[in-house]
Amino acid sequence: MVGQRKLYMYIAIGIAGLGFLLSMIGGGGILSLLGGLFAGAGAVASIALMKFGYVVMPLITKQTKTSVYLEEPYEIPPSQDVIVKKSGNEYLASSFLSIKIYESSTEKSLEQNIAYNEYFERAISNMKYVTKISYLVYVEDISAKRKDLETKRAEAQLRLAREKEKPDPDVLKIDRYEREVAKYDNEINKMVRGEKPMGVIAYAMTTAKGISKEAAIAEAKAQAKELRTLLANSLNVEVELLTADSMLKCFEWEMFFPSSREGIEDSVV
What we know:
By secondary structure, the chain is of the alpha+beta class. It has helices at 2-25, 30-64, 110-125, 142-165, 171-192, 213-235, 244-253, 261-265; strands at residues 68-69, 74-76, 83-87, 90-100, 131-139, 198-210, 238-241.
């Protein structure tokens, strides 16, 4: 999957380069015009793939109905939101979801932590299938972290202010933005007190089976949708379905994960 996105990006860069050459040697005629169009289209496509590949790639594969084949026996269908494997006479399909946690247990009282654990146990007891929840924990670089936090807090405050100014503001968005701002405030205050910032990446994985590939995919998507609602409501966290590169990162982390802080920060989902 990562290789495929890079391949498309290199093709786009090549088209942009070819267009630039045509515009240079065209002498102001039709070749120059075509070259300019190719250069512009290639440049836009390469930037889109580089910055927004997790959005662009599923659109491309859906339109072309292209499946991505990993090492046997794994496959990513055109929707790029599940990973499929054939096992005997059945198919298995797995979905991955990111979990954004805005509150730390160290910032809660004993009563709040007890209540949170009860909510977690309640969420687990309501699950009808096996679910894997993974946490990657690391110590962040304090030198650049504070500046990054202050920038993110300012962006969250701006989003919050804009939402509140709307004639019909979204209460759920306001709640999410307020939790973002509070999270960044808490992290900045910790650094002021001399505490080392801890980074946490959390994600969930659910797997379904079916007698056909389509049946397994449909069941995995249904489980992921149910799991997303259950975790978000029970744990007061933001849960998003992962696709394309972000999904593949979690799949790779099931076997190997980055061994350094720099590696994990470059791989944040």
